[in-house]
């Protein structure tokens, strides 16, 4: 094979021209385009990384915020639970206190009712006993009983202080001898003599009748009453009965029952 240097030279020149042309009109624009494209891609990647970083930061902020919300929610729930427990305990204490108060009030009411019932039954029994005693007293009659009442009255007058007895004999003062039934002249004379002797003076004495005495003989002065009757004794017994607050009953009177006691009282 024969090498033609002219042909080789022309081919070499053609290749060089082709390379120059390619470099001049192809590789440079393409290289510039590639470089620009790379820059655009790099910028896009950087922007993507920035956006990703912002998203990550936003996500971290969101997670932190949600964690704060969860902690706050847990705190609120815990506070609400504590408040509910405190309210429940307070309600239970209030209910327990009210229940104890109601129980105490009910116990007190039951006890008061029992005491009232006992007092009522005691009072009724006492009134019944006093009524029976009054009815029995109306069956006692006779001069002996009247003499006993007069003797009790004389003892009561003598038991008065001397100054009080002296006041009964003041001029112008009239004393009343009160009996449950009218006295005859003889009984009046005996009563006047006995009363004068007990007083130690001779004041004016009048006689009155009060059937509610049931039995007895009392001496009434303007400022003094010497009680000496079944009515006074029954009233005193009635007042001493437990649970009694009402006035003593006054049974119907007859002539002269026996007195239970003689008590001088000043009016």
UniProtKB/TrEMBL annotation:
It is found in: Cell membrane; Endomembrane system. One of its GO terms (cellular component) is endomembrane system. The chain crosses the membrane at residues 6-27. Residues 241-267 are annotated as: Disordered. F(1)F(0) ATP synthase produces ATP from ADP in the presence of a proton or sodium gradient. F-type ATPases consist of two structural domains, F(1) containing the extramembraneous catalytic core and F(0) containing the membrane proton channel, linked together by a central stalk and a peripheral stalk. During catalysis, ATP synthesis in the catalytic domain of F(1) is coupled via a rotary mechanism of the central stalk subunits to proton translocation. It comes from the Bacteria. Its main location: membrane. This is ATP synthase subunit b. Belongs to the ATPase B chain family. The keyword Transmembrane helix applies. Keywords: ATP synthesis, Cell membrane, CF(0), Hydrogen ion transport, Ion transport, Membrane, Transmembrane, Transmembrane helix, Transport. It comes from Lichenicoccus roseus. F-type ATPases have 2 components, F(1) - the catalytic core - and F(0) - the membrane proton channel. F(1) has five subunits: alpha(3), beta(3), gamma(1), delta(1), epsilon(1). F(0) has three main subunits: a(1), b(2) and c(10-14). The alpha and beta chains form an alternating ring which encloses part of the gamma chain. F(1) is attached to F(0) by a central stalk formed by the gamma and epsilon chains, while a peripheral stalk is formed by the delta and b chains. It is a single-pass membrane protein. GO terms for molecular function: proton-transporting ATP synthase activity, rotational mechanism; proton-transporting ATPase activity, rotational mechanism. Residues 256-267 have a biased composition (Low complexity). InterPro entries: ATP_synth_b/b'su_bac/chlpt, ATP_synthase_B_chain. PANTHER family: ATP SYNTHASE SUBUNIT B', CHLOROPLASTIC. The lineage of its organism: Bacteria, Pseudomonadati, Pseudomonadota, Alphaproteobacteria, Acetobacterales.
């Amino acid at each position: 094979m024969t090498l033609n240097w002219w042909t080789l030279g022309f081919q070499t020149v053609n290749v060089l021209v082709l390379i120059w042309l390619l470099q001049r009109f192809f590789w440079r624009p393409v290289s510039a385009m590639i470089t620009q494209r790379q820059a655009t891609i790099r910028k896009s990647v950087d922007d993507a990384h920035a956006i990703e970083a912002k998203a990550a930061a936003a996500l971290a902020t969101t997670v932190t915020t949600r964690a704060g919300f969860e902690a706050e929610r847990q705190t609120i729930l815990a506070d609400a639970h504590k408040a509910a427990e405190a309210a429940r305990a307070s309600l239970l204490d209030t209910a327990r206190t009210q229940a104890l108060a109601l129980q105490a009030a009910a116990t007190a009411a039951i006890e008061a009712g029992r005491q009232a019932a006992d007092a009522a039954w005691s009072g009724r029994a006492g009134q019944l006993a006093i009524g029976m005693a009054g009815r029995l007293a109306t069956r006692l009659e006779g001069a002996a009983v009247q003499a006993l009442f007069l003797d009790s009255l004389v003892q009561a007058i003598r038991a008065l202080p001397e100054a009080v007895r002296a006041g009964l004999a003041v001029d112008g003062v009239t004393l009343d001898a009160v009996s449950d039934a009218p006295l005859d002249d003889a009984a009046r004379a005996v009563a006047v003599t006995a009363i004068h002797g007990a007083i130690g003076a001779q004041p004016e004495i009048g006689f009155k009748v009060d059937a509610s005495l049931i039995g007895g003989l009392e001496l009434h002065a303007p400022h003094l009453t010497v009680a000496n009757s079944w009515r006074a004794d029954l009233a005193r017994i009635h007042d001493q009965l437990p649970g009694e607050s009402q006035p003593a009953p006054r049974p119907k009177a007859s002539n002269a029952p026996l007195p239970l006691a003689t008590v001088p009282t000043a009016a």
